[in-house]
Amino acid sequence: VLRLEPDYPEGRRRLAALLLAQGELAEARKLLRQEARAWRASPAEFDPVDLDELGRLLLDARLPREAVRVFGAITEHKAEDAALWHNLAFARFQMGDRAGGVDAERNSLRLDPTCVAALHNMALASIQDRAWARARCYLRLAQRLDRDDHALRRLALTYRLLRAMESLRRGFGFRSDRR
Questions:
Q1: What is the pLDDT of residue 171?
Q2: How far apart (Å, rounded) are the C-alpha atoms in residues 135 and 79?
Q3: Which of 38, 52, 137, 173 sits most deeply, having the most CB atoms within 10 A of its CB?
Q4: How many Cβ atoms from other residues are within 10 Å of residue 39's Cβ?
């Protein structure tokens, strides 16, 4: 399709999705970067649905920097969409921008306080900051919403283990390695 009609609006995204499904990461990334360049060159040709699809594919292809640009642009126009804010947060976390991820995730939770994935990410960020009370609060909220979520169970176990280790360190007089 792309050879016959290189300007076909969804061609690169559809082909990239197929390539990702087959594990052809390098080729998919190449197409997605072309699509991102096309969007930056002609943003009016992409509607929010196109951009959401592009952003998700960029995340699947492990291209979080490009995904941040895309989701950032969408949230400027659709600021009341919790899922878009969550995707922006996920992209920011993936590129190592924890503060930006937390800010975006807060926006997501402001719009949808029942988003278990957002609560999970906030709990994880709180654990990484050693903000134990906040982490426990996020974990409890998330577990009330979905008791069977395996990722939440693992995170809760991690939380309990890290808390126990910190208590032992303090009990034996070792200084916490808090930043």
A1: 79
A2: 26
A3: 52
A4: 19
Report the distance separating Cα 51 and Cα 150, nearest Å.
30
Residue ranges in the chain assigned as alpha helix (H) = 11-21, 25-41, 48-60, 64-77, 82-94, 98-111, 116-128, 132-145, 150-171
Average pLDDT over residues 85-92: 97
Q: Which amino acid type is present at position 144?
A: R
Give the CA angle between residues 156, 162, 168 to the nearest 5°. 135
CB atoms within 10 A of CB 33: 16
Q: Is 87's pLDDT higher than 80?
A: yes
CB-count exposure of residue 25 (10 Å: 0-12, 13-18, 19+): middle
Through-space distance between the first and last CA atoms of the chain, rounded to whole angstroms: 54
Contact in structure between 35 and 61 (CB atoms under 8 Å): no
Whole-angstrom distance, CA of residue 81 vs CA of residue 79: 6
Instruction: Answer for the pair 136, 159: CB distance below 8 angstroms, yes or no.
Output: yes
Per-residue pLDDT for 167 more than 80? yes
pTM of the model: 0.85
